[in-house]
Amino acid sequence: MSTNLKILPDDVTEYRTKEYWEKRYSKEPSEISFDWFKSYKELKPLFDVHLPNKNVSILVLGCGNSALSEDMYDDGYHNITNIDFSETVIENMRLRCKDRTGMTWIEMDIRDLNFLDRTFDIVIDKGTMDALMCDEGDVWDPNPEVIEVVRKEVDEVTRILKVGGKFIYVTFGQPHFRRRYLERPCWKVEVETLGEAFHYFFYHMTLLN
């Protein structure tokens, strides 16, 4: 089942707030799934290339009630940690996936990750950064607050990712707008394009040091 469009916000800046998501998830049945952008089926060819080892430890940032982790688990990736700042959706997903042994669900803010350094092999963001940037303002001259919020997310990823591990970011954000937020001395930003009429982008960065 997919999200009822009636509960989408009137103002897209609400996507940045915990209050909006708590209210939304409290109204949605637990079996509802909402996936930003592409489904796992559509992403699988790229995952097969960039995540060939299914025994890796994976962190999904801002998991929401997306079916991504469930579909990955069913495809053999069993070491998945999912975080979201909504207590409601974490509890819903924990119950929904109770039979998927080894997959964990934790209430946590992606800007302040409560994990030790160098914990995960793979970190995935599918649309979460985009939600944080809904109040971006001028895309050529973003609001300082937005820049700081995204900086915190990416800095935390570089901290908890293992050397040789990958950060994967799926978005509709074009490289000339998004690359600036992702660039760090510790990795090279690479991007692949998905879709034909409307493009999505699959960014992947491997931690070098």
From TrEMBL:
Methyltransferase type domain: residues covered: 60-168
Gene3D superfamilies per the UniProt record, alphabetical: Vaccinia Virus protein VP39 (3.40.50.150)
Segments forming a coiled coil: none
GO biological process, one term: methylation
Secretion signal span: none
MF term (GO), any: methyltransferase activity
Keywords, ordered alphabetically: Methyltransferase, Transferase
Family: Belongs to the methyltransferase superfamily.
Official protein name in the record: S-adenosyl-L-methionine-dependent methyltransferase
UniProt organism field: Rhizophagus irregularis
